[in-house]
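WARN retry 2 of 3 for item q-0093 after timeout on previous attempt; input resubmitted unchanged.
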Amino acid sequence: MGYNVLDVCRYVINYSNKHDYGISNLKLQKVLYFIQAYFLTNKKSHTPCFNEKIEAWDFGPVVPEAYHEYKQYGSGDIPTIKSYILFDNENIWNSKRVLCNDDVITNEDKNLIDKVVDKFSDYSATDLVSLTHRQSPWIDVYVPHQNNEITLDAIRKYFNA
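OK item q-0093 returned
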């Protein structure tokens, strides 16, 4: 089983800020896509990093849950996440602020994530959009305003080629 994508996001954002890379929501979306591809092709078990689906949007691959979580930052860099609201969808009164803790991600998986973040640290969000627009997982399913899913199988096939 993969991680919750928001746990992965918090880790990526904090790692990026710790290394002075900076990361906007647009860039985060592309980095998540490449992290998923890296896990599917390089992790021993070839399992996905996170469970949430990736969709083909105008500006490339997007994980909707992650996009909506960080869209408030617009095109600016997302600040370090020290805490966040853990929402209880059953009972809003049980929602609470919790400290950010990346212990849910194993050290082995953090190393894989770090490699991807480091690899793309010098790329702008626009560079990454251009890159993903040249790749078949996005090209094959993109239709304006349809938000079609980019399947794990399509990602695996493309990056294993």
